[in-house]
Every structure is written in structure tokens, then in C-alpha cells.
Amino acid sequence: MTMAAQRPPKPAFKSLQYFLNRSAVLAQYRQLLRITKPLERDVRRDVRQQIRASYEMYRHVEDETQASNLLRQGKEQVKHVSDLVDSAVARQRLVEETAQAKAKASVVVSSTSKATWTDAASGEDDDDQEDVRGRLGTGWPWKKDAPAKKLELDGVRRR
What we know:
5 helices
């Protein structure tokens, strides 16, 4: 047996589709790296290592149909990673905002109930101060002297 009989000859040049797939894969890889940029350093490094390993696994694929299928799967992964990064960034912002809010909220709470509702201990005549915690109204509704209003349901049909 000669070598020519064992395997079919390779084409001297690669097809146009090969180069189109290659450029699309490189663009997709760069896009994934850009998407992971807002993550924290350690997390970003781990995610990028996983991305690189998954691309290296299929580095030598030359079949055009398999490459296009892998590109399609990669497109779905880009959406998935983008959503995950967006949620992680939102979580980071939430943690940072709560830390900043705790740092800013250096309100001294006294033993009186009035001090928990306003930003400073005040006299009985200061009703125009706002609630520090954003609550509406004053006092508990069940401690009011006025009786609760009853609804008139005379004209309403019941089921």
C-alpha cells in the first residue's frame, strides 16, 4: 500500500467558509472576554480560564458544519454569560450601595420613640421632620382613638 491510497489528498488551500468561521470564533471569544470585564478580579480570572479552556478544546475542528454548530452554541453561551455577569454586577452594586448606606446612616437612636421616626431628637412641636426609615404616618393604627370606618355594602351583590 502506498501513502496515496491510505488517505485522500488534502486540499492545498482552506475554504472561504473556514476563514469566515475562524473570524467569527475569534470575534465571539473577544466578545466573551469583554463581557467578563466588569467582574471582580478573581472571579474574572476564573471565568476567563474556563472560556479559554472551552475554546481550546475545539481548536482543531476543521469540519465546517461542526464549526458552525459550535458557533451557534457559543452564541447561546454569550447570552448566558452576559446575563450572569449582569446579575453579578447588579449584586455587587447592591452590596456596595448597602455598605455606603450603612456608612452614611450614622443616626443616633435614643430611647424615645420620637427619635426613631425623625433624623434628630425633637420637641413635641416639630411635626415637619421626615421619617429616617421612609415610613409613612405616625403611630400605630390600632392605637388611634377614632373607630375604624365601615364600608357600606348595601348595593353590592355578593357572589
